[in-house]
Specification:
- The structure is a single chain.
- The chain is mainly alpha-helical and 256 residues long.
- It is built from ten helices and two strands; from the N terminus they run αββααααααααα.
- The chain has a two-stranded antiparallel sheet with strand order 1-2.
- The chain starts with a helix and ends with a helix.
- The N terminus is likely disordered.
């Protein structure tokens, strides 16, 4: 009876060795299990893996939220730094995707929109992040067409100041007022994107790129808005709003 046991042990060892070999061959992929659902994230570096685990542990309470966190992170890290040099459809899309992310005056305002929506709760949590990119696309069309709109840079900087303060003071404005404020500032951001369209880029692809990037930044704000569930969450959100307002003020004063 000892022989079958030995054969079984040998078989297990062989399987373990094979599994280890296969694992080594695919060490650039990671598997996550969230509520009995396996999620595969290809080409994951150690740094990206650490960030994904952090997002999953601190901001996600369901499989859908984990998927959103991973999608946001992979969208950001996958954007080429030199995207502005592209041409045609691909170059236009990548240029549009990169433009909001590499401008802090855009980043803080777009994160603030999602954060304020989370503070206000439903339905603002989805109305504001939808209103901003839709109206921003209109502003971009004005910029591409060369229709003059005054004080663009001032409006962008003010968006950071105003939205940051609204978050810092946890202002609960009526949904119509909140949407109107967001829409006004979206015109300025969209116009800036439109006027900075690279000559070789496809305008339609460029618009899709910056709308997707904007949506990702809104989602980041919404994720941080989940801090309200914690005992110290409101203070963290207030601090974040203050930082956003300070960044906007720095751009408004011309020191950033």
């Amino acid at each position: 009876m000892a022989q079958p046991a030995t054969q079984h042990s040998t078989s297990v060892s062989t399987q373990q060795a094979e599994a280890k070999k296969n694992g080594a061959a695919s060490d650039k992929a990671s598997l996550f299990i969230v509520r009995n659902t396996w999620i595969r994230v290809p080409e994951t570096t150690e740094k990206e893996l650490t960030m994904i685990k952090y997002l999953s542990a601190h901001f996600a309470t369901s499989s859908k939220q984990v998927l959103v966190a991973i999608a946001i992170f992979m969208t950001l890290v996958a954007t080429p730094v030199m995207a502005h040099t592209g041409e045609g459809m691909t170059g236009g899309f990548l240029s549009g995707l990169a433009h909001p992310i590499f401008g802090w005056d855009h980043v803080v305002a777009m994160v603030a929109v999602g954060l304020w929506g989370a503070v206000l709760g439903s339905p603002a949590i989805w109305i504001l992040p939808i209103t901003f990119p839709l109206v921003m696309a209109l502003g971009a069309a004005l910029g591409i067409a060369g229709i003059p709109v005054p004080h663009i840079e001032t409006g962008i900087a003010l968006s950071g100041v105003v939205l940051g303060l609204l978050v810092a003071f946890l202002v609960r404005a009526p949904i119509a007022v909140a949407a109107a404020i967001v829409a006004v500032f979206a015109i300025f951001h969209g116009y800036a994107h439109g006027t900075e369209l690279p000559d070789a880029a496809n305008p339609f692809a460029y618009a899709i790129g910056f709308v997707i990037a904007t949506g990702a930044l809104h989602l980041i704000g919404i994720l941080f808005g989940n801090f309200t569930r914690l005992s110290w969450g409101n203070w963290a959100i207030r601090a974040g709003g203050a930082v956003i307002a300070l960044v906007g003020a720095a751009f408004l004063a011309g020191v950033a």
